[in-house]
From TrEMBL:
Transmembrane segments: none annotated. Residues 604-625 are annotated as: Disordered. This is F-box domain-containing protein. It comes from Rhizopogon vinicolor AM-OR11-026. Gene3D superfamilies: 1.20.1280.50, Ribonuclease Inhibitor (3.80.10.10).
Amino acid sequence: MPRRTSAAIDHEIEVLQAQIAILNRREDDFVRILEDMARLRDSVKAESVALASQITELERQKKPINWLPSELLIQIFVSLAEDNSYTSADLAYSPSPVIISQVCQKWRKLAFATSILWSRVSYRCRKWSASPVCAFMNRSGSSLLDLTFSPPPYRVDDVDAATDEKLASQGLLDALNPQLFRVRSITFECTFPASMRLMVATLVDNLHKLKSLRSLDLSFATLGPSFTHTPLLEWDELGRQNLPDRPSVLTHLRLQQLPLLLIPSSLLRSVRTLELSYPSPRSQRVSQYILRMSHVHRFLSFTPEIQHLVLTETTPLRDVVLVEPSEGETESRYASVSPIELPKLRSLTWKLAYPRDVYSFMSFFGFPALERWDILVADSPTKRGDVSMLRGNHWDEPDSYIQAEPLSGVLSMSALKELYVSCQDGDTLISSLRQFLFPALEQLEFAHAGKCPPNCDHKHPLPRLDYIFRDPRLPYLTHFTLSHLDVFAGHGKLMLGYMPNLVSLTLISCTGMDNMLQALAEAYGRAMDAEHKNVRGCGVRVCPKLQEIALWGCQDFEFRSLFAVVFARAQPAGVTLIEAQKDVSSADAVSTVLGRKIRPLKKSRVAAAQGGSSPGKPHMHSPNRVSSTLIPIEEALRPVRIACVHVDDCPQITEDEALSLEELGTVVVYR
C-alpha cells in the first residue's frame, strides 16, 4: 500500500474535525432540548402540585372547622390545652398540644408558632424523663409557665414508689430552676413528704426569682401523711417568717395537709384567695401534722389582702383562748390571743364544719366586710382523737365533745348579705348559728346535705326560725330558698312573718308546702267591693312584696293553694275599698277591713321627750339595730302582684292548671 502524503493526512484530519464539530453542535442542541424538556416537566409537575393543593383546599373547605381563621383556631387550641380533664394515664405530659400538632400540616405550623400552647408543663409519672419537660419548655419560648406535678398515688409502705417519686420531683425542680423567673403557677401534689420537702426548699431558697408566681397549690394525695425522717414539722415549729421580706404577686394559695407555717410570710401578703383542706385522720400519730388554732391565727395575720377564704374539712384544734375576762381560768394553761381583723374578706366557704366549732372559729377573727357565707354543717364526731386541747366551746374533759360550756358571746355579722347553710339534721342547724346576728341579710338558703335514696320517704324537719337564729327578724331579706326539708304546720307562717320584704321564694323538693302556700294566701281582712254586693278577703298577712315563686320537685301541695296565693295578690281589694270610701277616713276604712275599731296608741314618755327635742339634734341609735318586721297596713292591703311562677317536676299540677295562672297576669314557667 503506497504511503500517504502529509497533505492527504492533514485533509483527512480536517474532515474528521469538521465531523466532530458537527457532533458537538448536535450534542449541545440535545442538551438544550433536554433542559427545555426538564423545565417543561418541572412546570407541569408544579402545576400539578398547585392543582392538587387547590383540590385539597377545596376538600378542606367542606369541613366547618376549616372555615375558622387562624387566630380563632389558636384560641381554641389554647382552651383545649388549659382543660385539665383530658389526660392519659400512659403519658407523663399533657397530650393536648402534641395531638393538635399531629392533625395536619396547618395545625402543626400553628401549634409550633404558638408558644403559649406549650406553657403548661405537667408531669404525671413517678419515673423521671427529662425529654418531654425540656421539649415543652423550649417550645414555650418566653411565655409564662404553669407547672403541674401530680404522679399517681401509691401505698405509703411502697419504698420503691417513694424513691421514684422523690427522684422525679428532684429532676423536675432541677429542670425548672433556670426558668423560675417566668413560672406563673405551681400545682404540686405528692404522696411522700420527702418530695414536698424538696418543693418547699425550692420555694424558700428562690423567693427572689418568683417574680411572676400568682398561684400556688401544695397538697398531699394521702390522708394523714407521716412526716417521719423529714424536717417539715421542725420547720413548722420554728416558723419560716424570719426570711427576708420580698415583694410578691401571689394571689391564689391552696394548701392541703401541709404545715401552715412552712410558707414564707412574704408570699402571703398579696394572697386574695386562700383554700385550706385539713381533714382529720382516722388515727393520730406523733409524726402527723395537727392543725391548731394558733397556727391558723398566726397564718391569717400575714394575709391582709385576703378576699375569699375556703375551708374544706378544716377544724383546727383550739390551743389558744381569746383575751376575755370570762376565760380567765385558762390563761395560765393556754396562750391568750386577740381577735384578728380581716378587713377585705368578702366571701367565706366552710365545708364540713362541726356545729360547736363554728362560733369558736369565727370569734377569733373580725369580718367587717364579709358579704357571703356558705357553710356545710356536719354531725359532730362521736369521739375525739385528741382531748388535750380545746375544740369549740368544749373544755378538755374526756366527754367534752358532748357537754358544752354556756354560750360565751354573740357575733354580729353586720355586713353579711348572703347566707347559705347546708346541714345533715335540724339539731346541727340550731347549734351552729345561735350565737350570730344577721342584721343586714338579703339572701338566705337552708338545704339538707344528707344522702337519701331516690324514693326515700324520710323527712328532714326544718326547725323554727327563732330556734335557728338568736334574732329571727330578717327585715332586709329578699330571697329565701329551702331545699329537701320538711316544714311543720304553723312553722311556715311563723317563718315568713319575719320576712316582710321577701321578693323571691324558692322551694326545692320540700314537704309541708301546702301550709306555706296557705299562709301566703291568708287575707289581712275582709271587705265589700265597690258596689257593696260581695264580701271578699283583702290584702295579705305575710310577704306583701313577694313577686316570684319557684316550686321544684314539691309534690305535697294542691293547685288551689297556689292559685289562692296568686289570686290574693292579683286583685288588691284594699284599693277598691279605699276608692269606694273616699269620704271616709283611713282609720275607719281599716277598721271596716279588720272588723274592729282601730284606736291610735298613746305616745310614750320616751317618744314624747324625743318629739320635744330640737330638730337639729338627730336621734342616735345603735348601728347593729335591726329594723322592725311589722308590715305597714298600707302594704298589707296593697300587696305586689306575683310576676312569675316556676313549676318544675310537680306531677300533681297539670300544665293547663299552671297556665291558667296567666289569666291573673302572672308569667308561668312549667316543666
